[in-house]
């Protein structure tokens, strides 16, 4: 039964990811078909992204207070209502641009807390199921990738068969299904009240507690900084460099679609491979001498050398395979280290920072191509990846990725202070990593 709940959590994650990706395609198409304005499409899409970022920043304390068992299904249902309200309003009262932007912003704001709440539930469900954390984290990331990969193409195919309002109704039904699935999977998952959290604290103090944890845990902070840099460079690659290379060097738009699809499919395969083998490898060695070094850098160098489609396709597939192992490794470390009562806040903050530079990646990638040239920009981005990989050498705490993942003995525990003035037990072999004495399912 416990393993079934974990599997259902993965299924709900893939389902809601597919519905979100479909909504990200269907809503702009609906706007374009009903208004005929590309500017309106941009404004509605921007509203959705702004809503998502605001919710990412502010939802952590709420998730910790209410618990994932209630937050995830309620967030999914609210997101489903937002999608369904768009075609409903269009056929009844009519939609203004501002009301459409409001619904799109609310959709973005509700769907992100649901995903964060699912991640908060992972450690306890993994512990109850008796599987390795690497497999639990790998399964979550694989479900997320599979949903993103399938949602947009399915939405495109559905738009060829149905009108945009019909596709939005389908997305509403799928989002509702994901709410039912996660309600079953997360039922009984520990809330912050039972984890010993003081629920009388105000929002500001609870939010500050998450920031305070990041200041204490060097490894989680450095992971956040590393993801900020690499995600920014990744978006420059997929959003600017690869499309420009396909247009100017390969002269083939079909090649772009094939390369992007191959990269996503290979990353999903690598993710599944890590889910199977992850518990048998040393994380730090796998991450920095294999996944990062052989993942993002070779495609840049291959394009800088002017490689043809066949060579670039092979490089993209091979590198996507190993790059797909990065997220599960870092997720497993985060799930094990972050205390249960702070998990919602810390995961929300790390997601916000990790994704915060992606708009700049696209912007500076385009400016660099125009100012420096495509091949020079590709060489520079490869060098920037090497600089990012130097962070584990310059920053502290990275050896803790491979620390023994067993509970500390009485001799290994010392008493420390929590950000809100209480007491917690800290593993002295892992500076800055707070651990409570109660079982968290790590």
TrEMBL record:
- What would be one Gene Ontology cellular-component term for the protein? plasma membrane
Residue numbers spanned by region Disordered: 402-442
Quote the InterPro entries the UniProt record gives.
MFS (IPR011701), MFS_dom (IPR020846), MFS_trans_sf (IPR036259)
Q: In terms of domain of life, where is this protein from?
A: Bacteria
Q: Which UniProt keywords apply?
A: Cell membrane, Membrane, Signal, Transmembrane, Transmembrane helix, Transport
The places in or outside the cell where this protein is found are: Cell inner membrane
TM ranges are: 37-59, 71-89, 168-186, 219-242, 254-274, 286-303, 309-334, 346-368, 374-398
Q: How does it sit in the membrane?
A: Multi-pass membrane protein
Q: Which residues form the Major facilitator superfamily (MFS) profile domain?
A: 220-442
> Does the record carry Lipoprotein as a key word?
no
Q: Name one GO molecular function term.
A: transmembrane transporter activity
Q: Which residues form the signal peptide?
A: 1-21
What PROSITE patterns does the entry give? MFS
**What PANTHER family does this protein map onto?**
ENTEROBACTIN EXPORTER ENTS, INTEGRAL MEMBRANE EFFLUX PROTEIN-RELATED
Q: Which family does it belong to?
A: Belongs to the major facilitator superfamily. Drug:H(+) antiporter-3 (DHA3) (TC 2.A.1.21) family.
Q: What is this protein called?
A: Multidrug efflux pump Tap
Native species? Actinopolyspora righensis
């Amino acid at each position: 039964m416990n393993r079934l709940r974990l599997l259902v959590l993965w299924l709900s994650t893939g389902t809601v990811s597919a519905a979100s990706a479909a909504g990200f395609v269907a809503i702009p198409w609906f706007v374009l078909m009903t208004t005929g304005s590309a500017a309106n499409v941009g404004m509605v899409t921007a509203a959705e992204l702004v809503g998502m970022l605001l919710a990412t920043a502010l939802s952590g304390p709420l998730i910790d207070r209410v618990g994932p068992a209630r937050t995830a299904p309620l967030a999914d249902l609210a997101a489903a209502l937002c999608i369904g309200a768009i075609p409903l309003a269009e056929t009844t009262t009519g939609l203004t641009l501002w009301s459409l932007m409001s619904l799109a912003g609310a959709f973005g704001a509700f769907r992100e807390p649901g995903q964060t709440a699912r991640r908060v539930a992972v450690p306890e469900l993994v512990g109850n199921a008796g599987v390795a954390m690497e497999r639990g984290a790998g399964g979550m990331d694989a479900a997320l990738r599979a949903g993103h990969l399938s949602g947009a193409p399915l939405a495109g195919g559905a738009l060829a068969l149905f009108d945009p309002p019909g596709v939005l109704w389908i997305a509403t039904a799928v989002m509702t299904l994901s709410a039912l699935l996660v309600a079953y999977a997360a039922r009984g998952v520990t809330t912050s009240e039972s984890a010993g959290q003081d629920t009388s604290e105000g929002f500001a103090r609870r939010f500050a507690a998450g920031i305070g944890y990041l200041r204490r845990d060097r490894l989680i902070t450095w992971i956040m900084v590393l993801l900020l840099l690499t995600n920014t460079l990744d978006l420059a690659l997929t959003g600017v460099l690869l499309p420009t290379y396909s247009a100017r060097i390969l002269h083939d738009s079909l090649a772009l679609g094939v390369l992007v699809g191959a990269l996503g499919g290979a990353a999903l395969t690598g993710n599944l491979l890590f889910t199977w083998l992850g518990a048998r490898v040393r994380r730090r060695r796998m991450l920095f001498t294999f996944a990062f070094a052989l993942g993002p850098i070779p495609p840049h160098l291959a394009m800088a050398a002017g490689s043809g489609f066949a060579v670039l396709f092979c490089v993209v597939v091979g590198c996507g395979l190993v790059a797909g192992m990065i997220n599960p490794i870092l997720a497993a470390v985060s799930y094990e280290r972050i205390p249960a009562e702070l998990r919602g806040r810390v995961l929300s903050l790390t997601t916000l920072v990790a994704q915060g530079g992606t708009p700049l990646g696209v912007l500076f990638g385009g400016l660099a191509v125009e100012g420096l040239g495509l091949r020079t920009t590709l060489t520079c981005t490869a060098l920037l990846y090497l600089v990012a990989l130097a962070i584990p050498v310059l920053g502290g705490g990275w050896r803790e990725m491979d620390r023994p993942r067993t509970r500390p003995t009485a001799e290994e525990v010392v008493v420390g202070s929590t950000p809100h003035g209480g007491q917690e037990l800290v593993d002295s072999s892992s500076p800055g990593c707070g651990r409570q004495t109660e079982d968290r399912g790590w």
